[in-house]
Amino acid sequence: MSAISAVLFDMGGVLLTKRRSYQTNATLDAIENIICSDFDSDRAKNKAITELKIDEVTFFSGVSEIPRKYEKDERLWGLLAVLKGKKRTAILNNGASITLDSFDENFGIYGAVDVFMNSALKGVAKPEPAFFLRACERLQVFPHQCLFIDDTKEHVVAAEQLGMRGFHWSGAEGEYQMLVEILE
Question: Are 50 and 135 members of one domain?
Fold first, then answer.
């Protein structure tokens, strides 16, 4: 049995990946880039409206469409289901909070894990140690009891510096099996 008591997943790039069938939409992609680069939803909205020369209706329509660009990594969602009740689980997400309800409607992100944390709602983001430590506190575990999975190497390194076991996810062949072995 593993000494790991909690598994912390990144959302975008790990649990959710861009659909292979996604057709680029310049306005939608620009809205997403703006709201992902500014955790203040009102400021991001105003910036998008001004820079893209769109109205508020177009902005909010785009926000509700963003989750449709993504699909679940079914292997990892299956792993989440297996872990339920056996280990504590969390999603740690950097980004604006404005899209979260749409992501939850499309993917059930809130109910999929024990703890869901978003940087905009917490006022701190990965790779800042405080973000990881808040997750541990909410999960009622110590960092050395955690496995953190992210597609951004800098975030994995930051988690490891706190004592977490880190896993840099790229979706490559064999990675899922490596995760399963770590958790056995």
Answer: no
